[in-house]
User: What shape does this take?
Amino acid sequence: MMTHKNNPYLLMAALFAAGAAMPLVLKPYHLNMLTEIILFALYAVSYNLLLGYAGLLSFGHAMFFGMGAFTVAVSLIHIPGLSIWSAIGLAVTMTTAVGFVAGGLLLRHKGSYFALLTLAFNSLFYAVATKWHTITGGDDGLSLTRPNLALGFTSVNLAGIESFYYFTLVIVGAAIVFCWYFTQTAMGQTVLMMRENEERMKFLGYNTNISRLILFTFTGAVAGLAGAFYTLHFQFCSQSAISVDMTTTVLLMTFVGGTGTFWGPMLGALVYIVLQNYLSDITDRWPLFMGLIFVFMVLFIPGGLSQIIQSVRGLFAGKRGTGKPLAAKEASS
Amino acid sequence: MVDIPVFFLHGLAYSGLLFLVSAGLTLVFGMMNVLNFAHAAMYMLGAYFSYSLLQATGQFWLSLMVCPTLLFAVGALIERFLLRRVHLFGHLHELLLTFGLAYIITEVVKWIWGNFPLAVNIGGLLGDTVEIIGITYPVYRIFIFVCAGFVGATMAFILYKTRLGIILRAAVNDSEMVNALGFNVPLVFMGVFAFGAALSGFAGVIAGPLLTTYPGMAHDILIDAFVVIVIGGFGSLGGAVVASLLIGELQAFGVLLFPKLSVALVYLLMAAVLIIKPSGLFGEES
Assistant: This one.
């Protein structure tokens, strides 16, 4: 069992090390793609905290992503000399506030009602972003250039692909690790148990409504951070960042990757972006393929790609005593 | 302010269309507890079928009968072979499935008919205008409202005055008992879903000449129909009537009075209802 507990840290360190070595191996085009994958991985991880961990199906996650994206764009354009840290901080603060207020309204409902309401809220944000032309640029969107990264004693030019990649890897990577840490805390475990049996949790004295609101706000803030990096990455932000399509994207990534594990959605983001880049060269109909994959998964493999990987791994590891921990678990519960 | 009656009639026409869409949605939701994301996609499918049929034959009345029938079949197949399969996994999966179907249908429609709007023209009496309370008004918009009234009345009659309606309502309350009494409940649910699909197809045919057929039409109407359901109360037919009228008129007069705010008005109303009465105007407390 000890090895199981140590695994995640080793895995994370290995991933960071591999990530740090990537600029030596990859061409700029692929490095750009990898940056996109990393930021979408964070977005998908935050979405899975809602869908996989809390069992809340939201169709409004793009409102946080878009809010973060727009906050960075608008603040960098309108406040001269604003540092990149402040812009990102502003984005996270904004999305935290929005998450808290919207969560208070939306979380009164569960299941289908919740899904429906989040979609309506997302549409409201989209409508505002489209109509409020003076601030958001409407259909034209907003272009900007990445400011330099101030590190106190020195300043790094982020204009290059490579330097921005490292910046993304460190900050977004740290955020993903923090999300993982969140699932290990008492708070994260509470959410997990609420999904399984909310009545019992209430009976044990937990205020499940507050827990759910905290989780919703947290995922909103994380999605806002991902959105902030989306703007910084493309140096452009348009209303598509806040559209329902952006929610659809994250839902597809998360579900195809697998909602049952923490790392599934990251895999989903990788598969989605890679497919998007290569399939869109071959055919204009690539969203159709994504849709077909999605429906196939819903029907036959509800655990997504991570379920496939786990069962394959189970085939190989099966003989080496998976039976024992399971038996121990059953005995202790 | 001579325009007020005109805007009022515009509002009524859109209310009619909105009711036709949301009635099917709320029926399926109320009966089967499935929030059908694919409903608006089927509405779009109906509109595009109708467009092709009109191109081929020019018979609007024909397409008003054929397209809902086609959609009835589509709905029955979806329920029988896809939805029933994931029913055991719970609502989340049903929702995800209908969402995936909506996505696929939208993409297929773009593939077949192209990613641009197609105008639908109907001639004859419906394409004409008529003199009403001192203004000249298109017959078609009045026709929409009459259709919605007819459909609403028929649905209410079936649900509350016929034997079939009793079976339906009983199946919602206790499907096992109804099954044990010798009624084929899975068939009943298949029928309900297919009927909802047919209704969406009917609405699609109606919508074509009013709003033109375009690839984003499903998304646009879906949000409005959802707002209608939220405001009217989940699964309530009467609520759908009132909320459709409310939203239709609000949109019509919103454009007139607050052109800048008009898109947000509908959502503001929804947020207000949510704060004051979370279950909707006519919804039962859960």
User: Anything to note?
Assistant: The mean pLDDT of chain A is 85. The radius of gyration of chain A is 20 Å. Strands of chain A lie at 142-143, 149-150, 155-156, 236-237. Residues 83 and 269 of chain A are 29 Å apart (CA to CA).
